Automatic annotation (TrEMBL):
InterPro entries: Lon_prtase_N (IPR003111), Lon_prtase_N_sf (IPR046336), PUA-like_sf (IPR015947). It comes from Streptomyces edwardsiae. Signal peptide: none annotated. Pfam families: LON_substr_bdg. It comes from the Bacteria. SMART domains: LON (SM00464). This is LON peptidase substrate-binding domain-containing protein. Residues 6-224 form the Lon N-terminal domain.
Amino acid sequence: MTTVRLPLFPLNTVLFPGLVLPLNVFEERYRAMMRELLKTPEDEPRRFAVVAIRDGHEVAPSARGLPDPTAVPERGAAAGFGTDPLRAFHKVACVADAATIRERADGTFEVLATGTTRIKLLSVDASGPYLTAEAEPLEEDPGDEAGALAEGVLRSFRQYQKRLAGARERSLTTGADLPDEPGVVSYLVAAAMMLDTPTKQRLLQAPDTASRLRDELKLLRAETAVIRHLPSLPAVELTRGPTSQN
């Protein structure tokens, strides 16, 4: 079994292959990670793994506070993730390639990364300044009837967009050309839908593209039906995620 060792960046969100992730890096453990990544030659990928947090805190407490004002804040690579960090994370993560790492004058970083491939976490090492993970790359199996399913998902996704735009009393601006490659469709729709983290994680770790598309088709139909009966929805962007304040 071929494995890879990568810096590990836990977030309260799911990154999908092909999707862009902006990061505002200010915690020292992640600043150390970015300083190390900057040592990689510019013509080589600056890779790290983004994993969704199952149980823990994206930002470790840095001062005493409620409920115990006398508690000493946690320090170190695993701060906020308990004594066994592997148990705090979902097992399937996404490799990110940092196209831009810009250090600000105050030592924080502005990072723009893109998801590339999926991996399965095997172990997590907290002995260094930041977490690293030993991981197994996951191949993307198309599964059965992925092409036909992708066509159905795209039709349902366009209907979902129209309903969502109508619920916000806004014009539809995200109906531009959409890809037709089944794997790309499955990840784009997973990222663009308004779903909670556990559901997005379920889509990320689907055993194959066809299974992910089948799940998305059910979700799109259910979500579209719900939106039809709602007078309005929160004004959040459909295809733009928040910049992580990790």
